[in-house]
Amino acid sequence: MRAVVIGSGMSGLTAAAYLARAGHEVSVFEQFPEIGGVTATLRREGYGWDLGPLLLEGFAPGESAQRILAELGVADQVRAVREDRGICFPDFSLWKPEAYRGPCWRRERLASLFPEEADGLGRYYRFYDRMMDVMALARRSETRAGLAALLLKLRAWVAFRRIAGMAGWSAETLLDHFFERPELKAVYSGILADFVVLPSEFPGLGIPGCNPETSFDRRIPLQPRRAGPHPAYCYVIGGIGKVVEALAGRVRASGGKIEAGLAVEKILVEGGKVGGVRLAGGREVPADLVLASGGAKETFHRLVGSEHLSEESLRRIDALQPMESVLMVHLGVATDVARHQPAALCYYYGSYDIDGGVRACREGRFHQGKDGFLIYAPSMHSPELAPHRHHAVTIYTIAPNRLREGSWEARREELADKLVAEAERFVPGLREESEVRVVMTPEDFQRRTHLAHHAFGGISPVMGKSNPAHRTDLEGLWFIGAQSESGGGVMGVMKGARNVARRILSAA
Length: 508
What we know:
The protein is built from 16 helices and 20 strands. By secondary structure, it is an alpha/beta fold. The chain has three domains: 2-53 and 240-321 and 458-507, FAD/NAD(P)-binding domain, CATH 3.50.50; 102-228, no CATH class; 325-449. It has helices at residues 10-21, 64-71, 105-113, 118-142, 146-161, 171-178, 182-189, 192-195, 207-210, 241-253, 296-304, 311-318, 354-362, 408-423, 442-449, 490-507, and strands spanning 2-6, 25-30, 41-44, 47-50, 56-57, 80-82, 86-88, 93-94, 233-236, 257-260, 264-270, 273-279, 284-286, 289-292, 325-333, 345-349, 372-376, 391-399, 434-440, 477-479. The strands form five sheets. Strands 8-7-16-17-18-15-19 form a seven-stranded mixed sheet. It has a five-stranded parallel sheet with strand order 10-2-1-14-20, covered by helices on one side. Strand 7 (86-88) and strand 8 (93-94) form a beta hairpin.
């Protein structure tokens, strides 16, 4: 078959690699001059920074992303190291203790800070253990077949029955059930700001998965219970671009083609079936299959055309709530970041009002770093990303796709300065010791991703709403990537692309 893949991010390259390896004629078209989308490593003057993914799930031995790389024969080209992160709030911080204090040290630390919440913390962590058991059993079932898979699914169902009464709860309802103080609610809901989703919108059962204890201390055993291993969190040594290089190399080695700097301007449709694509400039490429990654609204309204879709499909697409964007400042500095930040990654929150911060971002109001940001120094785990005794540093925060006041182009340096100034409260010398600075605004990400509305992580995960399915209304057209049913995250889009490729190949 002739297959066209639109976009060279993780989903596009993964799908292309599977199809090309199976002997099909594969062409990948990337509108940006460089491949990788936001899953790329930016390099300037001896420094390297990841554009998006930081601490990743799925790349430890035996986990989903690593299994995909192994299936494609490129696992040896991607080295990952298990690590952890810190989290800081206005009145307290949660860094792993110098001496290991067991898997429950965060619970004990919070109970010492908020003794009146000790009972709620105990109840929350019992719920946490049960939910993590369900997730572990579900993950194990993915790697089994037949009776073994059925038995694992049955065990997951039995475990789920113990918490099934919470299935319809939002994150807000769930955290109100366990805690009184806003500080504790913010500890477990703070990550929702990354998704630009309100605690009242996010499914409560997703809270444990967003706050796995293993991501805060690499010394915590991955299999504390019989249900199965908890997820490990890793950095890719040398930057996430190593994964892009490995997958792109597999596509090319299997006879596939990758062309950058070529935008697809139309998916050609006739009689309810795709026939190929038309590129900017007018060149038409015939195809039996088109796999489109990127924005749902951009794909279906702009590339396909609403006249080819059912009313129900159009309603679902128009109802989607894309996430907002980010302001990202990459620095090459001569200062020793490790003197001030013990781990490569830390989230700094300036507010406990996650709900208010998300609403402001959706309304186009930018907090200028005062509500929170993260600082990531990839050279702490990958020294090759900075000159000797220097560090690559990324500071970023959620930001409106479009500002209510002014434009990102006009205010890029002003707002970048303000964000760096906030970060210097925790890591002094970032401005004074800076040798290289690269500012990336939402408008820069719009150009890189070809999205009219840059949604950094895809679609906001809102209860009762689902992302578009991989299989579309049109024969031969498949939708993949962070805005598809796979959801966001590197591991998620890789798994989704693999599943689509398998469905295509099984039907061939």
